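User: what does the whole thing look like in 3D?
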Amino acid sequence: MAAQLEEKIGMKTESYTFKVEKGKIKELALAIGDLKEEYLNGECVLPTFPTVIEFWGGQGSFSNHLGLNVKKVLHGEQEYEYLGEIKPGDEITVSAVVEDAYTKAKMNFVILKKEFFNQHGERVLICRQTIIERH
Amino acid sequence: MNVGYQFEPLQKEKVTHTQLVRYAGASGDFNPIHTVVPFAEEAGLGGVIAHGMLIKGFVGEAIGNWFSVKDLAKFSSRFKAMTRPGEKITVKGSVVGESEHRWICEAEAVNEDGEVKVKALFEIKKG
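Assistant: Here's the predicted 3D structure for the full assembly of 262 residues, as structure tokens:
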């Protein structure tokens, strides 16, 4: 099991592109209940908007891709580093790689690093997340 | 602003099952542990649980109340406990340090019993 898990280190997903739409910004704001004017009119994105890019831009879930059991998967940690602004109308391309994978306390840990680039090739965001799979 | 400064807490409405369905659609995270009760029960969770990113979204809302989100440089969070429909979340935060160009702050999303759901650390660019 552990050996199989470690083989995932360095695994990449096919990169994907998502166009930032005003409607999706508003939809996320309404779901969270964060009703700031600039989100509702789609002028600027919420701090957690990159998650929309990941799920709607990506082809299916990363958990499936990594062969993790979705019934056993939990979100452990998540970090965003904002390097530039993500603006409505931008086309954001995301590439992801498994930075680390290990087993601890009867749980599997997978660390993913995702880099977000805009249409000008500028790296605007780095996202790191820890996925936990319960045994 | 100074180290030790406490921000005004953000008190959210109760999390509802409908909100989880809505958040699933908005975010695109359709893992059924968040929306389908029988699936979540079968997964051993005793019912649906909120997306961790929804609760992180509450923290993001609070940060946007406290600062301009354009100055947000880093936002990391640890998901400590599951949140279920019916729970009421409050986000508290304070400044815990500073560097030449950044304010280092921390925030916690807690329920009415004080159980910590999300613990966050964030950095704000000084104006």
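In plain terms: Chain A has a mean pLDDT of 91. The two ends of chain A are 10 Å apart (CA to CA).
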